[in-house]
Amino acid sequence: MFRIPVAGGHAVVIVHRNCADDHGVDHLVTHRDRHGAHPVEEASVTWSGLVRVADSPDPSAEGVQDQAARLLLLRPRLGGHALPDDAAGALATP
């Protein structure tokens, strides 16, 4: 499980399920002031949306803070969206 805290109290929680009868990855959205978690809709997100989440950590919350790690963890949510030409620079290691 990975927790990606976002400014404003939200977080994306990535749960990797590896049971024999139940395997896959769930992306959930939580908020520190609310109970429960809500699944991220099946619709994929855009590159700009991914970058916005990756670039807005909440240093006061526990979880993945590194921008590059956050971007790579969220990358599967792009679905069928094509990467823009400048995406390689964001995904490359400095």
Task: Describe this structure as you would to a colleague.
By secondary structure, the protein is α+β, with helices and mostly antiparallel strands. The protein has one domain (2-79). It contains 3 helices and 4 strands. The chain has a 4-stranded antiparallel sheet, with no helix packed on it. Helix 1 (47-54) runs antiparallel to helix 2 (67-74). The protein is globular and about 40 Å long. The two termini are 26 Å apart. The mean pLDDT is 85.
The residue fraction in helices comes out at 10-25%
Outline the low-pLDDT stretches: none
**Rounded mean pLDDT score:** 85
The ordered H/E elements are EEEEHHH
Q: Count of DSSP E strands? A: 4
Counting copies of identical and different chains, the oligomeric state is single chain
Radius of gyration: 14 Å
Strand order of the largest sheet: 1-2-3-4
**What is the tally of helical segments?**
3
Task: Give the secondary structure arrangement, pairings included.
Blueprint: E1 2-5, E2 10-19, E3 22-31, E4 38-39, H1 47-54, H2 67-74, H3 87-91
